[in-house]
Inverse folding.
């Protein structure tokens, strides 16, 4: 079966079309109008089949985000903060967290990570405030840019910065690619496996993992694009099902042919991507600040953000 171009572990699992897979445990539930899917990859064979490293992948979905409903955003933000807090390792009072915003801020669908860094509460340099505000955690943040702009490998920058800061955890934020267009701008994935910058658009760079940076690496991502070949496949699949037909092998062959054609590297993003990115940045940054500063009141967080 075709290996679907997607960064979402739940889509990679669903793409296998088997319902169950040795070495993979899937749990699904709903909370406050948000649908959650947990994919646990436990062995090397499942890692190979899904193309995702061993670890935990948690997906949060809420289609109402595209309608920009405040209650939908509040529910997603609260759940993301809660689940991110659970993934963070136990820490000493002075243990620093390092937030890394991956992507190119000059390209809207890829600007999610850098924009989240801009709204992250950075506190490592505020020694006086760390003493005045009980429970305030030291946080550093960086948006290292992309190799085509800086001439430097993202991994090299983060690795050396981690060696200086010595964080208790590294949290990466990045734009992702989805298989299903309905998940663009409506879905978040949280994982403890680290991240490979540029994977969603086929621009593979060195991975950011616990082994490479010396600390747990948690990744937060939202799909902002879908590959044109995958979108075409989905459209033909929908048309076939309307006529009571379903030929998965033929659809796989078609998508494979498109990926090898001139349109193979083309990606598609919604026309309202500016608004989607703006909303996603606020949602993720607020959840991130709440998870990193659980002992600080929301009023104090707002005051510190100024």
């Amino acid at each position: 079966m075709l290996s679907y171009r997607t960064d979402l572990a739940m889509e990679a699992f669903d793409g296998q079309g088997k319902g169950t897979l040795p070495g993979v445990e899937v749990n699904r539930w709903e909370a406050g109008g948000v649908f959650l899917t947990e994919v646990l990859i436990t062995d090397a064979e499942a890692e190979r089949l899904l193309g995702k490293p061993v670890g935990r992948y948690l997906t949060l979905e809420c289609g109402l985000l595209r309608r920009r409903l405040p209650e939908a955003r509040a529910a997603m933000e609260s759940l993301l903060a809660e689940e991110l807090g659970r993934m963070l390792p136990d820490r000493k009072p002075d243990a620093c967290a390092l937030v890394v915003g991956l992507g190119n801020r000059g390209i809207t669908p890829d600007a999610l990570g850098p924009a989240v860094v801009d709204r992250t509460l950075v506190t490592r340099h505020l020694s006086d405030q760390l003493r005045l505000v009980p429970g305030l955690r030291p946080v550093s943040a960086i948006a290292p840019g992309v190799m085509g702009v800086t001439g430097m490998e993202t991994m090299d920058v983060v690795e050396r910065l981690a060696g200086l800061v010595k964080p208790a955890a590294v949290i990466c934020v990045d734009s992702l690619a989805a298989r299903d267009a309905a998940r663009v701008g409506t879905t978040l994935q949280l994982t403890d496996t680290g991240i490979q910058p540029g994977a969603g658009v086929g621009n593979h760079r060195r991975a950011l993992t616990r082994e490479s940076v010396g600390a747990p690496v948690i990744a937060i991502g939202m799909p902002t694009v879908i590959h044109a070949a995958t979108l075409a496949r989905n459209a033909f699949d929908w048309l076939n099902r309307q006529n009571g037909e379903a030929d998965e092998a033929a659809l796989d062959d078609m998508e494979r042919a498109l990926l090898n054609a001139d349109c193979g590297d083309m990606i598609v993003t919604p026309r309202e991507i500016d608004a989607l990115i703006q909303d996603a940045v606020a949602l993720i940054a607020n959840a991130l600040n709440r998870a990193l500063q659980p002992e600080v009141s929301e009023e104090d967080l707002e005051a510190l953000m100024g």
